[in-house]
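anyone else get weird line breaks when pasting these?? whatever heres mine. first is seq + tokens for prot A
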Amino acid sequence: MDEYFTEDEAFTAGIQKQVETITGWLADPAMDAERRFELAQPKELTQPEDLRLFLTEQELAQAQWDQALVVYITGHGLRGQSRRHYLTFGHTSPDRLLATAFPTSELITQVMDSEAEHVLVLVDSCFAGSLKSELGVLFEELCAQRRDLKTLAVITSGDFEQEPHRGEFTWLLKLALDKVRDESAGFTAPHLSFEEWEKLLNTVGDENPGLLRALWVWPDSRRDEPSLCLPNPHYQPKDQVVEASRQPVSLSASTLEQYWLARASGRTDDDDPGWYFSGRQTLMQALVEFVHAGAGVLVVTGAAGSGKSALLARLVTLSDPLFVTRFADMVETVPAPLRPRLRAVDAAVLARGKSSLALIEDLLDTLGAEGVGGEPPLQALADRVAAACAKVLGRVSSRDQGTVRVRSLIQIIEARRCRPAR
């Protein structure tokens, strides 16, 4: 909120700069779309009703489980006689806070009591630390499952008696983000955890004792679990060498350099262009023939370390158009009987440790299929496989090496309901 009818242009510009610090991080156009946030800002807030209308329009309380929410609240704040924190407006009367101001906790509880799994609320306002005791009581109304989530957080600009200077809190955040961007800091994952974020804020606070400290209102302890609310501005997406539908069982660019092209191919050094197989031609040819003309499901079995993963990874990777285009010269050295046609494998997923439902959902997502009208996932998958005559590969563990043909994919999935993957 930046309109208080005071004609203080410096204040309005300062608030705008604070907002730009946050949006420049979370909605950076250079960030990949999967991590970048969509912005929603109110056009004008002159009274509590304006804010309530905006919140209703945004449907924050109805946010779904797979959504991530970051709410940045800034503007003048007051602490009432009841120790409740309020956001004030141009016509707010200190003697009539209930009628002319907005209880900050009303906004926070809406997003915290939504179904969104990842929520971060930043309150940049005077006396915002008073929310710690206020929300501590209100959050008792959250269900136990919600309270146990460690991916929800509320952070304020200082404690209950502190009045941050304009831009002070976002400057603290900027310093923390600058550290993340520093190559030597070693932050390479797509997202930061709340534990990492807390350490960063504490570090820049220690290095800048003149700045106020960020106060963690919720949760009481931070976990080292990635938060979708904290995209890493330094993150560089890995170079993918195959299309998305085959990535789970394919080989990354780094793996190709460190293992695949050097060991699995049989090359003696980086200058050797050959791609050699030793003792696996028969099995590899069987896999290739199956994806070309086989029926049902082919299950590759074998003792631990016998090479099941390498075989399937070769098959998946060599059938990918992106890989074949990128490494055309090398692929040409592979004998034709050991080389699957392009897109011979429609989709590849990892089944290890997954429930039947999780495996089905992964397959549906990879195949780009969805159930219609509440159709059960298993039926949706069966329809998709039948319609496209797709060849789907699965990998299981056993003692004997060889190949076993199974009548249908559905039999495999049904069996996994009673027998967890190893």
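and prot B, same format (seq, then tokens)
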Amino acid sequence: MKKVIIILLLFCFLFVGGLVISSSGLMKNEKDIIKYGGRTYSNISDLDWFESEKSRYKKGEKIGEIKNHARFSILFRDFSATKLPEGTLLYNTVGTNQGIKPLIILVETENAEILYYRWLPKE
């Protein structure tokens, strides 16, 4: 009887823990985000306020490529993305000094489309 109670308590704990994790957003990947240099960058390419700013950001030196398509944001590590496929190229913006993490990262897709990802310190 003691084992049954322990198993039921463990099941309840796992069930409640799963609900808390899923409702907290740790498991969601609805946003188009990438991780680089320990920072999370969000796709701002189609935002109205950014349309007039795009011309200021030119493609600089290659900084890497997407190595992991993460379905869950809790599993994110550098060069992971929620929407971009593995192998997608990432670039610094012109004017970003070597060794300094950029505010904006340019992404070149397979069909040569340029996307802009901005570091958002707090989400």
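btw re prot B: The first helix runs from residue 2 to 24. Residues 31-119 form one domain.
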